[in-house]
What we know:
Elements: H1 2-43, E1 49-55, H2 63-71, E2 79-86, E3 101-107, H3 110-117, H4 120-128, E4 138-143
Antiparallel strand pairs: 1-3, 1-4, 2-3
Amino acid sequence: xxxxxxxxxxxxxxxxxxxxxxxxxxxxxxxxxxxxxxxxxxxxxxxxxxxxxxxxxxxxxxxxxxxxxxxxxxxxxxxxxxxxxxxxxxxxxxxxxxxxxxxxxxxxxxxxxxxxxxxxxxxxxxxxxxxxxxxxxxxxxxxxx
Length: 145
């Protein structure tokens, strides 16, 4: 009977020790996760990933209607800083004049960009703007330095 009492007391002490160690480990893990998040934000600061899209439009494309469709992207939470506009000929022979319109936006990181790519509003834009396109859009993505 004394051995049973000893085992019960030992087990309860061990359980308390395990609980304390578990609590300490959880606290250390939370601190490590916070540090990882801080480091990730330093590596990929907000708005660092820029996505540029160039559009070749049909000669009779309704640019105002296309612009209205593109502006719907502003409802996508992950996207920041949408800029869009038609080509302006400034007489530079190097200009990409084959493209009639351009849009540019930024994202906090590649995860946000992937969410944008899979967003229903983005899919709708791709479908709703086919009628205006003379060819596939060209894209250029970069990390701001």
